[in-house]
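Quick illustration, no need to memorize.
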Amino acid sequence: MSVLELQEIESRRVLPTYARAPVEFVRGEGSRLWDVEGNEYLDLLCGISVTSLGHCHPQVVEAVREQTGRLMHVSNLFYSAPAMRLAERLSELSLGGKVFLCNSGAEANEAAIKLARRARHEGEIVVVHGAFHGRTMGALSATPQETKQAPFAPLVPGFRAVAPRPAELAGAVGGHTAAVMLEPIQGESGVHVLDEELLGAAREACDEHGAALIFDEIQTGMGRTGTLWAYEQSGVVPDAITSAKALGGGLPIGALITGERLAGALRPGDHGSTFAGGPVVATAALQALALTADPELLEGVMALGGLLAAGLERLPHVLEVRGRGLMLACELDTAAPAVVREALLAQRIVINATGPSTIRLLPALTITREQVQDALERLAGALAAA
C-alpha cells in the first residue's frame, strides 16, 4: 500500500490529530529505519525517545517473543512475576520506595498528581512555564502552554504556573501546596535544562512546607542524559519520579516511582489500570532496564553526546546547542520545520522540530561514533539547503 493510499484512508477515517510526514517506515534495526520503498534512514529521534536501545534490540525482541508465546494478559487482580520484578528493580535503581505501573507518560503523571493530592488533600500543584506533562486532562492542566490548554478549557483546577526562577518558585510554595512538579530538562518546549539552583530551591521549599517534589523523567530518564535518571546529576533527590518512553524498549509502559516518604500515600482502590504492568510489556521493560543500567553504555552516552554537540555547534545556521547527553536541541537562524523536511526527504535522517526555530535530536543510546559523524554530514547538507 502506497503512502498516498494511506493518506487517503487517513483523510476519511482518522481523526486529524497528527501532522504526519509523507513516509511509511516498515523496518528498523539499531539506528536505522527503512521505508516501504526500501530507502534507508538514520534515526535521530527514536520515536521521540522511545527506542533508546535502537530499533528491535535482539535481547528485548527475544524476551517479548518468549513471553508472548506463554502469557499475554491476566489483569492486576492476580500476581504477575514480571510486574513484581520490574517494580523491585525500578525501586532499587532509583528512590527506594514503591511503584505504580501504567501504560504511558501521561498516565504516570496522572498517578503522580493523584499521589500528591492523596498525601495533601485539595493541595495545589505548582509547575513552571515551558513544562509539558502530557495531554490527558490532569497532565494537560499541569502543562502551562496556552495553545495546548485553551481549546479544552475548563481545565482541572488547582494548578499554579510560575516562571522557572528560584525565587518565584519558592514564593509559590506554602502550606496549601501538595507538590511541585518539574522536568529536569524540558523536552517538548525545546530541550531547556532547568538550573540546578531552581531544582534546589524547589527541594528546600517542599521540605519547608511538607509538599512533595515530583520529577517528570519521562523523556530524561532511562539513560538519556548519561545517568539512568537525570536527577542523579543534579544533587537534588525528589520524592517521586515518573518514567515512560524508553522504559519499555519500544513497547508502551509507564511508571510512578516513589521514595519512602510517599510510599504509603495511595491505598487499595485509589488508582488502577486494566493493562498496566502486563506480562509482555513488563518483560520488555525488565530487559530494557537491565541493558540501559550498564555503566559502560551510560559512559558512552556522555561521550557520544559531547561529540554530537560539538559537531552541531559547527554547522551552518546553528546559533545555540542545548541539552545533556544524547538529549540535544539546536536553535537555528532559519525555519526548523523546513530543515526537518529537507533532512527527512533529501538526506534520509529523522529529527523533529519543537518550535519554529528549534530542532530536537534524541538518537539511540547505542548509536556509534561513525553514525554520529554520518548524522552530522547529513545535517550539514539539510542546513545548507535551508
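The chain has two domains: 3-57+295-384, 71-292.
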